[in-house]
Specification:
The protein is α+β, with helices and mostly antiparallel strands. It contains 23 helices and 10 strands. It has helices at 15-29, 48-60, 62-65, 91-100, 104-135, 141-149, 156-160, 170-182, 187-203, 205-221, 228-253, 277-286, 306-318, 323-335, 351-358, 360-363, 376-394, 397-414, 435-438, 465-474, 494-504, 522-537, 552-563; strands spanning 39-41, 69-72, 81-84, 340-343, 346-349, 425-427, 445-449, 540-546, 568-569, 573-577. The strands form 4 sheets. Strands 7-8-10-9 form a 4-stranded mixed β-sheet. Strands 1-6 form a two-stranded antiparallel sheet. A two-stranded antiparallel sheet has the order 2-3. A hairpin with an 8-residue loop joins strand 2 and strand 3 (81-84).
Length: 603
C-alpha cells in the first residue's frame, strides 16, 4: 500500500533516478564509445564470447528454427549441435542491436553491448515503478534504483560474461505487475506477472531456485489490504502461468534433439564442497581494514553495500512496511555466503548448506553467491524507506537522494576486486584474419586446438569463445562446441587425446592413451599418421592452432613433433592440412571414449 503523499510534494521526483541511471550508462558505455560494433563489453578471460555466440546463432536462425532454438551444424563437427536457447528473454534486447548493426559480427557486437547496457537500465526503471507504488512519488526512490541497477552482480555480465544474470532485471517489473494485479488489476497484469516470473526461472535455473525462496514473503507483503480470496486467486494464477513458461523450457531442455545432445543430457556436477563464506562476507564489511585478517580474496559474495544496509536498517526502524523487505534482503545476503563457513580445517554449515543437503532441487545451485544479483532489490526498497525518512526530516530530498545514490554506486562497485568501473572490453574476433590461411585448404571442417577445458596447471582453462565467434564468420565446421563441453573429436581421435594430455601436463606409457612430455615414440608417430586419416574420413580438412590461447605453445610443440612444420602460419595461427581419406584405416585402438558432448548450463 502506497503511503499518503506528503503535504509538500517534490517537483520532478524522478530526476535523481534519471541522473543516476545516466551516470551508470555513461560509465558502462565508456569502453565501447566510438566502436560499439567492433568491441564488446566483457573480460577476455570470461565466457563473454560463448554467451554472445548463443545469442548470435539464435538470431541468425530465428526465422528458420524459431526464437527458442539455436542450431549450428558447424560446431562439434561432424556431429553438429542443437539445443534450446535458455537465454531467450535476453533476445528482446539483443535482437534490436543485432538488426540495427546489420547482422554478422557487427550486429552481434552491437546486440551484446545493447544487452549489457540495457539490462541494468531496464532494472532501474522497473525498480522505480515498484518503489513509486510502495513509497509514493518521492525522489528518495532513486536510492533503491541505484541499489538494484548498480548492484555488483547486476553488473557482473561485463566482468564475468554470464549474461543469464541479466534476466534478474525483470524482477522489479514482475513485483510491480503483481502489486497492480493485487490492487485490482485485470488479466493483463496477471499475464505480465506470470510471464516475467517464468522467464527468469527459464533463463537460469538457479534464479528459479532463488525466487522460490525470496518471492513468497514479498508476494504476501504486497497490497496486504486486498481481500484474502482475491489475493489467493491472483497468486495462484501468477504461479500457474510462471510454471507453464518455466516448465515448458525445463521439459524441452532434457529432450534429445535431432542432432547432438540436449542441453541437460548427462549428469550435472553437484559438488557440495564448503566454500570460504566467512572471507567473502567479512571482506565486504572489513575490506578497508589493513592487517593480517586474510581477507584479500577474489571471491564475490552477495554483498549489497554498507550504505544500503545502513539505510535499510533505518527504514525498518521507522517504517513497519520496510521490515519484510529488509528481512528478505538479509536472507538473500546470508544465503549468498555459501554452504559453509570454513575456519581452518573445520566447516560450519550455513543455511544454504542445509538446503543443499535437504533436497536435490537446492543441490543444483553450485554457487550460492549468485543470489547477489537479487538481494539488492529488497534491501534497496528498505533503504528507500530510510532515505525518505531522512529526506522528510532534513529537507533537500532530491539532493540527498542523488548524493546517497552516488555513494551506493561507489560502494557496490568497489567491493568485488577486479570489477572496476568502467568495465573491461575486448575486440570481437574477426574471421577475415584467417582468410589467407584457409584459401588454399580444400572444403571440410577444422580441428581447432588447444582444447577447451584442458589446461596446464596454474593456467586458466581455454575458452572456446573465440573459436565459436570466428566460425560464425568463416563458415567452416569446427570440432569444438560451446562452454562446459568436450571437443567432439575426443571421443575417437588419438591426436586430440595426445593434445589433451600434453595440455594437462600428463605423462604415460600406452601409445593409444597418453603421450610423454618428451619425444614421441615410433609407435606413437604411426598412430598419429593413422589418426590423421581417420580425421579425413570424418570430413576434416585441416588442423588450426590458436597460438595466443593458453597452452598454445605447448600444443604447437607437440603438433610440430608429430606432423612437422605447419603449411601456413600467421602471428596468431598455424595450419596443418589433413590428407586422406584412407578408407577408415586405424591400426591403433583407443581407450574408453571420453564423455559424450554435453553442453550444460553452469550453475
Amino acid at each position: 500500500m502506497a503511503p499518503e503523499p506528503p503535504a509538500d510534494p517534490v517537483a520532478r521526483p524522478w530526476l535523481p533516478a534519471v541522473v543516476l541511471l545516466l551516470i551508470l550508462a555513461i560509465v558502462l558505455a565508456a569502453p565501447i564509445l566510438g566502436q560499439p560494433t567492433a568491441r564488446v563489453l566483457g573480460s577476455a578471460s570470461s565466457p563473454t564470447l560463448d554467451h554472445l555466440w548463443g545469442l548470435w546463432v539464435t538470431a541468425e536462425g530465428l526465422l528458420q528454427h524459431g526464437p527458442f532454438l539455436r542450431d549450428s551444424a558447424g560446431l562439434a563437427f561432424p556431429d553438429g549441435f542443437r539445443a534450446l536457447q535458455y537465454e531467450a528473454p535476453n533476445l528482446l534486447l539483443f535482437l534490436p542491436g543485432f538488426w540495427l548493426g546489420g547482422g554478422g559480427p557487427s550486429g552481434a557486437a552491437l546486440g551484446w553491448n545493447l544487452l549489457s547496457l540495457g539490462a541494468p537500465l531496464l532494472a532501474g526503471v522497473g525498480a522505480w515503478l515498484l518503489l513509486r507504488d510502495e513509497l509514493g512519488d518521492r525522489p528518495e526512490n532513486a536510492v533503491g534504483v541505484a541499489a538494484f541497477a548498480g548492484g555488483a552482480w547486476m553488473l557482473a555480465s561485463p566482468f564475468m560474461g554470464h549474461s543469464e544474470y541479466l534476466a534478474a532485471a525483470l524482477w522489479p517489473w514482475h513485483l510491480w505487475a503483481l502489486g497492480r494485479l493485487l490492487a485490482g488489476g485485470r488479466w493483463p497484469w496477471l499475464l505480465a506477472a506470470g510471464l516475467s516470473l517464468g522467464a527468469m526461472a527459464a533463463t537460469a535455473s538457479y534464479l528459479g531456485v532463488f525466487l522460490l525462496l525470496l518471492e513468497p514473503p514479498l508476494a504476501l507483503t504486497l497490497q496486504r489490504q486486498a481481500p484474502l480470496r482475491r489475493r489467493a486467486l491472483c497468486l495462484l494464477g501468477v504461479a500457474l502461468v510462471a510454471l507453464l513458461v518455466a516448465g515448458a523450457f525445463a521439459v524441452a531442455l532434457v529432450q534429445p534433439w535431432p542432432r547432438g545432445h540436449g542441453a541437460f543430457a548427462g549428469q550435472l556436477s553437484l559438488a557440495r564442497r564448503p566454500i570460504p563464506g566467512w572471507r567473502m562476507v567479512l571482506h565486504g564489511l572489513l575490506r578497508l581494514v589493513p592487517g593480517p585478517l586474510g581477507l584479500d580474496t577474489n571471491e564475490q559474495a552477495a554483498y549489497p553495500g554498507l550504505v544500503v544496509l545502513a539505510l535499510g536498517t533505518l527504514g525498518a526502524v521507522v517504517e513497519r512496511r520496510a521490515r519484510p523487505w529488509l528481512a528478505v534482503g538479509l536472507l538473500a545476503t546470508l544465503l549468498g555466503a555459501g554452504v559453509a563457513l570454513r575456519v581452518g580445517p573445520q566447516a560450519l554449515m550455513l543455511p544454504a548448506g542445509g538446503l543443499v543437503q535437504s533436497h536435490s532441487l537446492f543441490a543444483m545451485v553450485h554457487w550460492w553467491q549468485r543470489i547477489g544479483v537479487l538481494s539488492p532489490l529488497p534491501l534497496g526498497v528498505a533503504a528507500a524507506f530510510g532515505a525518505r525518512h531522512l529526506g522528510l526530516r532534513l529537507g533537500w530530498p532530491s539532493a540527498l537522494a542523488l548524493g546517497l545514490g552516488l555513494l551506493i554506486l561507489l560502494d557496490q562497485s568497489s567491493f568485488p576486486r577486479g570489477w572496476v568501473l568502467p568495465p573491461p572490453s575486448q575486440p570481437l574476433p574477426r574471421a577475415p584474419a584467417l582468410g589467407p590461411l584457409l584459401e588454399a585448404l580444400p572444403p571440410g571442417g577444422l580441428v581447432v586446438y588447444p582444447l577447451p577445458l584442458v589446461h596446464l596447471p596454474g593456467e586458466d582453462p581455454v575458452s572456446p569463445g573465440p573459436y565459436l565467434v570466428e566460425q560464425m564468420s568463416h563458415g567452416r565446421p569446427i570440432s569444438t562446441v560451446q562452454s562446459l563441453s568436450a571437443d567432439s573429436t575426443l571421443r575417437w581421435s588419438l591426436l586430440s587425446r595426445l593434445v589433451a594430455n600434453r595440455q594437462a601436463g600428463h605423462s604415460g606409457r600406452a601409445s593409444g592413451e597418453t603421450p610423454g612430455v618428451g619425444s614421441l615414440s615410433p609407435s606413437q608417430r604411426a598412430c598419429v599418421a593413422a589418426d590423421m586419416a581417420a580425421l579425413a574420413d570424418h570430413g576434416f580438412a585441416g588442423i588450426l592452432l590458436y597460438r595466443d590461447r593458453p597452452s598454445g605453445p605447448t600444443v604447437e610443440a607437440l603438433l610440430r613433433e608429430a606432423l612437422g612444420p605447419p603449411a601456413a602460419e600467421s602471428a596468431d595461427h598455424a595450419l596443418w592440412p589433413i590428407k586422406g581419406p584412407t578408407n577408415g584405416a586405424r591400426p591403433c585402438s583407443l581407450p574408453e571414449p571420453a564423455a559424450a558432448i554435453v553442453p550444460v548450463l553452469g550453475f
